[in-house]
Design a protein that fits this description.
39% helix, alpha/beta, 283 residues, TIM Barrel
């Protein structure tokens, strides 16, 4: 366990390859330049050990600088990046990962994901084979995917015999993805949540969230992030504000009741935007 800025331990869970992963991570999207490095530095100082970046975030260098500057040992950090759509393919995935490592200044990634399946391109199985090769070479410790459907996960497993360690997907109380989370659990895939706090406002004013916050003496954001933990997902909230980072990480000193979890899940209304992995593609 590591500790948040409030001294509360941040637990880990084991992936299907036996490696531990912290139960909350720091999203780094849009954290660029010196301000971005400072924000990531603050996150590490505030207790985060799981750092989530991607080629398409254009900030792997900043993440690498923060890691290099941090007093926290490299082996105590869990660094994730993602392969973009334009790098799909076996050889392309290997080259992309080598470039990510060079930008990060690291000799390995703790977790590497396929960022989007881009089904019209038809190369995500070949890209997955590239990740398996990277894992076998020791350049990547754990391998997974992002924004994959249950059918896509099944296709990867049937084609290669290797089950992704993680599937990182849009997941928040307005889009709880209950069936997909249950499927992940049934095959041993760990769910991670991007945009776990939603992005477009209004969520924190919902009655089930304000009532739970009052009952537990915590912030609405903490209730939402604790809900992610309760349903079995690892949230990756993004904040550049050190105080908010610490508050977000301080979710392991209380639990929600089953009724509170169910009420929050009952807020379901759909995705934030039209980002259905069957049709939405990013290069």
């Amino acid at each position: 366990m590591t500790e948040s800025g409030n001294g509360t331990p941040i637990p880990t869970v084991d992936l299907n390859d036996g490696r531990p992963i912290p139960q909350i991570g720091l999203g780094t999207y849009a954290m660029t330049g010196d301000e971005g490095v400072a924000a990531i530095d603050a996150g590490i100082a505030g207790g985060y050990r799981l750092l989530d970046t991607a080629v398409n975030y254009q900030n792997e260098r900043e993440v690498g600088r923060a890691i290099a500057e941090s007093p926290v040992a490299r082996e105590d950090l869990f660094v994730t990046s993602k392969i973009p759509g334009r790098h799909h393919g076996f050889d392309e995935a290997i080259a992309s990962t080598e470039e990510s490592l060079a930008r990060l200044g690291l000799d390995r990634l703790d977790l590497h994901l396929i960022h989007w399946p881009n089904p019209s391109v038809g190369k995500y199985v070949d890209t997955w084979r590239g990740l398996i090769e990277l894992r076998d070479r020791g350049l990547v410790t754990s391998i997974g995917v992002s924004n994959f459907t249950a059918d896509m996960l099944t296709e990867l497993i049937e084609a290669t015999g290797v089950t992704p360690a993680v599937n990182q997907v849009e997941l928040h109380p307005y889009f709880p993805q209950t069936a997909l989370v249950d499927f992940h659990r049934s095959i041993g895939v760990q769910t991670e949540s991007w945009s776990p706090l939603y992005r477009d406002g209004g969520l924190f004013a919902e009655d089930p969230i304000t009532e739970a916050a009052a009952a537990h003496g915590v912030e609405p954001a903490q209730v939402v992030l604790r809900w992610h933990v309760e349903i079995g997902s690892i949230p990756i909230p993004k904040s550049a504000n050190p105080a908010r980072q610490r508050t977000n990480a301080d979710i392991f000193g209380f639990s929600l009741t089953p009724a509170e979890v169910a009420a929050i899940s009952g807020l379901e209304r759909g995705r934030m935007k039209d980002r259905d992995p069957l049709t939405h593609e990013e290069m």
